[in-house]
Sequence to fold (332 residues):
Amino acid sequence: MTEPRKDRRPGFEEEALPHLDAVYRFALRLTGAPDAAEDLVQETFLRAFKSWDQYTRGTAAKSWLFTICRNVFLRRRERSQRHDQIVSESVPRAGAWSDALNPLWFSLSGVDPEGDFFDSIVDDRILEAINELPEEYRTAVVLSDIEGLPYAEIAEMMEVPVGTVKSRLFRGRRQLQRVLYEYAVEMGYIEARAGVDE
Amino acid sequence: MDEKRTLLDRLRSLVGSGPDEEPRTRRAAEGAADESAAVPTCPSSDGDAMLSCEEALAKVHEYIDGELDDVPASQVRQHFEQCQGCYPHLRLEQVFREALRRATSGQCAPDKLRTRITTLIDEARREEAAGDEG
Fold:
């Protein structure tokens, strides 16, 4: 039959679907489990499709999808459990000189200045370490360091000022670095150095 | 312009040292327990173009993330290229990010998920079209 090709969601497949892998990766980091991630991604794309008219063509489709994905995740989590990990959010201090000097790098600079020990760490251990971060830090780190989103887009997504994004990145990265370093020491990939464990 | 005090002033006020002090080595020594070999020291950071160690280190994340707003990237890069003490602080930070990307790079959406989503969207389109007609 002749279909009245009235497309109320033009361009959805072309603009949204290319980000499926990225959204899936993000969902995996949020949920920590493939089944839950698939479910979350499916819900994300269906919602995105239904609200496609609210999306401005040509703008950052990826972070728009990430926003939906995270909102769905947070709402579900809220419904299922009431114990939110409260992240203490003091004044962002990232950028202060004393903070800029990473004590870990400081100690490593004499032992492994090129960071070769990172190559020895298996991917699964890295993923596990990311998953252990509080959600606020995890989302910031994943979006910035893995997906390469600009601070401003992450801030908009998470509905916080850019300074808070920087502070979350700072804390999330430091926590991850410490966990990975300790693991590398434990596995004998790197020589433990006195003073790192203060 | 006014609210943008010089970076150095801001840093100094953050670490609580007076504007006349030279905070570099003192803060460096405090920043980590295991020190001497790696205390960042620059040949000379008095030249107007060369950033000091504290200025460069304070910008390391924004430099890597391409988010510098008040210092040209070339100046930050120059510092890390020329300062042996600071170099590992940039390099390790970069290698860390590379490790995160490497660990997640192989993770792609399963084909069955892709298929399921396209099917569901096709269905939704069809339903909508049917609704429009009826």
Summary: Confidence is low (pLDDT under 50) at residues 1-39 of chain B. Residues 111-133 of chain B form the longest helix (23 residues).
